Amino acid sequence: MTSTDVLYWLTSMPLGSAVSRIRDIRVIPLEFTLPPGKGYGSARGLTKKRGGGLVLLDTEDGVQGIGEAWGPPSITRACLELVKPLYIGRSVFAQRGAAQTALARMYHFGTQNQLIALMGGIDIAAHDAMAKLLNLSVADLIGGRQRERVPVYASGGYFTEADDQDAALADQLERNAARDFTAFKIKIGRHPAEDAARVALARRIIGDAPLLTVDTNGNYTEDGVLESMRRTAPFDIHWYEEPLAPQDWAGYASLKTRAPVPLATGEALYSVFDFRRLIDARLVSIVQPDLTLCGGFDVARTVGILCAAEHLRLSPHVWGTGIGLAAATQFVASLPNYPHGAHVPYPPLVEYDVGMNALQNEIFVEPLRYADGHLDVPQGPGLGVTLDEAAIKRFSPA
């Protein structure tokens, strides 16, 4: 019997007869405070703390799955109290039914909120537990490992608290240009003239060969975006990320016909419904789901299928803890190359945050391994990472 046969057998069993039922779900807040003067961020503002919600899912037979829910853990915990009864006692292989039931019963809440992020964290934890039960990696569980290493881009180039933003940007890029990254992202979006200067500086430092992407975090209106694009396009911008607010559908439809560079967005969309709208209308060229807030592997896989059907590229957003990074790595490792054959000009890139963030690597016994522009896909079962319990206590404020 193959692992696929086992999975089909388990998921087809009625509730109560499956071999591994959910016993408990908890949310543990994680927080890392940056040193004084070291805050960083986007055109929308700076942060002095990094955080996330660690989701722990325990099964009745002793297996624990780990996940991450984006956003304020206090709100995540409150949402958990609402939906937890739907999960407890259910087969871990059938947990997606609980999420669908919550969406159906709590439709007044909408689908762009912390409840969706929580259910994404639970979904990630459930997939970690399922894969551990079958002694598989999550990549093998959700589609089969297509690759052992996934390409990443250095996500940094932040605005900072420094008085000299040019010097701060140069320092960030110079440190990471020496690490053999083949793709970079920098923050822009405060003013088109400044955008051009930052992009020119970035190109001087990283050179002509690496891919260069830019991110405004939706801080512009359409006229500002177009002016920024005209000023930055000559520097070979690979994609222009979040040019507009997340649900400005008419704005994206208009911008797509006028933009001189490819558009990317999706990190702030919380459900498959908005992704379908984005993809069906082909409003962008690169779709960027974040597994820790869009609904976990279940939604990400659906988004991947929709992207493949429309021949759109996919690049998952990651900006939380190392758990979200591990999940995105397993997800991309499972993606086929379709519609490409033998040659893939631009493979899916995982966002690899290079800002100061102890929650990325220090919460694991062994962090994900980066080398030569790639992350190795962990070989162990589940997500392939093990929590460092001492570090979890150190970074948990509660």
Structure description:
With 398 residues, the chain is an alpha/beta fold. The chain folds into 2 domains: 3-136, 2-Layer Sandwich (Enolase-like, domain 1); 140-388, TIM Barrel (Alpha-Beta Barrel). The chain is built from 15 helices and 16 strands. The protein has helices at 3-11, 73-87, 95-105, 114-133, 138-142, 165-177, 192-206, 222-232, 249-256, 272-280, 291-294, 296-310, 322-333, 358-361, 389-395; strands at residues 22-33, 40-42, 45-47, 49-59, 64-69, 149-155, 159-160, 183-187, 211-215, 237-241, 263-265, 286-287, 313-314, 350-353, 370-371, 374-376. Strands 6, 8, 9, 10, 11, 12, 13, 14, 15 and 16 form a 10-stranded mixed β-sheet that branches. Strands 1-4-5 form a 3-stranded antiparallel β-sheet, sandwiched between helices. It has a 3-stranded antiparallel β-sheet with strand order 3-2-7. Strand 10 (237-241), helix 9 (249-256) and strand 11 form a beta-alpha-beta unit. Helix 4 packs across helix 12, helix 6 (165-177) runs parallel beside helix 7 and helix 10 runs parallel beside helix 12. The termini are far apart.
Short note summarizing the structure:
This protein is an alpha/beta fold and 398 residues long.
State the fourth-level CATH superfamily of the largest domain: Enolase-like C-terminal domain
Give the beta-strand count.
Answer: 16
Integer count of domains: 2
Largest sheet descriptor: 10 strands, mixed
Radius of gyration: 21 Å
Strand proportion: 15-25%
| Low-confidence residue ranges | 1-18
